[in-house]
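As agreed, record minuted below.
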Amino acid sequence: MIKITKAKVADAQAIRQLETVVWKEEVTNKYDAPIFVRFGWCYVAKSGQKIVAAITSFLANTNEVYVCDWVVAEAYRRKDIGQRLYQTLIKAAGSRDIISLINPKNTASLLAHEKLGFKVVRRVKMAYGLRDGLEAGNRILVRRKHT
């Protein structure tokens, strides 16, 4: 059985490790991971004691919730675990809009976001200002307006 809970600081390195396995490169450094968990809006999906999925986000100064990462271990995909994580975040966000930047090549993520009520806002060139690696290139900004 998969259980969704608010992440604890003790979960930070396991979330980081899951991101590294799934994305095949370091996404969050070891110092930032605990800060995201402690001060952000982060939820994990656990099978027993093992973290198999996570969503990390924070409240921006615009009063929007910005999703940093949404990751599900390959063996646990297409089982609604990622959707349950997002629904937990949506409930926690209350009246706040939720925004995310998505790699336009990640069609599965785009479709999942659309299914969750997100709309494409605009394309963003070189969103993170990087030329190499996972975060390099253009992104699509999506927003889920509070309903």
Summary: The helical segments are 12-23, 32-39, 81-93, 107-115. Residues 2-144 form a domain with the Aminopeptidase fold (CATH 3.40.630.30). The two ends are 31 Å apart (CA to CA).
